[in-house]
Amino acid sequence: MAPAIPPELTFDLQNIHTAIGYAVADQEALVNIIGRREYQQLVTIARQYKASYGVDLSAELDRKIIGSLGSLLAGACQHKVLAEVQYLHKAGKSNRKYETLRKKDTAIEVFCEILVGRTTEEIAELKEAYTAVHQSDLKEHVLSFCKLEETRKFFIAVFEPKEDKSFENLEESIEKLRKLLEEAKDLNKTLEYISSLTTAQIHTLVRTYNSIHQKAHVVTTIEKNFTHKGEILDLLLYIVMQAADPARHVALRFEESMEGLGTNEDHLSRLVIRNRGKFMEKVKAAYHMDYNRTLADRIRGDTSGLYSHLVCHLIHQTI
Fold this sequence. Notes:
Blueprint: H1 7-21, H2 27-34, H3 39-53, H4 57-64, H5 67-76, H6 80-90, H7 107-115, H8 120-134, H9 138-143, H10 149-159, H11 170-184, H12 187-195, H13 199-212, H14 218-225, H15 231-244, H16 246-258, H17 265-274, H18 278-291, H19 295-302, H20 305-314
Helix pairs in contact: 1-2, 1-3, 2-20, 4-5, 5-17, 5-20, 6-7, 6-8, 10-12, 11-13, 12-15, 13-15, 14-15, 15-16, 16-17, 16-18, 16-19, 19-20
């Protein structure tokens, strides 16, 4: 027998069901309930909703409330792995026409955001969940979007199981990276070397390299020596920046989702859903440090209405 949920969550469950049940869903009530609950509470509510009413809560929210608000409410009530599976499946398929024309948040960038920096076990969990939901192979799905051979090799390496071990000789590895960056200046070989390492090794390599070469960090050196812009350079910068400071990198991604003409709400929502919890506190601190304003202030300035309220509630920063 499944454990009984707390009375307060039972109350939420009933109120959510009532709000969804109207001919026009009570969006404000749903934002006030879902936006103020922690991730684990929402997962519990969604599981109990399915058991009580025989309907998937996330799917019901997405069906009854169109647009970005419905998608965000739905994502908030999903298990994070299932939410990521949906984001991977929908990569490059925005429902908003203007967003399909944006240079940022391409399918390749979505794949990087979700797959780069993950452990072998996490990748395996995503693959298994993707197959269960979509009856197809995640790796094949990702590779179908790779037009360049170098990009294809990169994601093959991402999916390749790797033994989680320390460097046999960290100094030699740092010197190898330095030579690739400073002497050979070979973009493809640099990406190939970095992507052959485990996530833990990449983090160790990049952070140690930066501590030794304080006036020529990895990102600075890459941008200086590889001036030809393109997808391969973007992949290399992504994996290095994520390794150097994950929270600061996500803060940058938040800024990118709102810069320029209009806000890419698909991207903004995905960042909120994927980074909820303790890690979001680090992201907000990094954002404030880099942009001299709170993340909530930036969101309030670029979004509006109930969607704006919900985003700020989910990141626990309403002012």
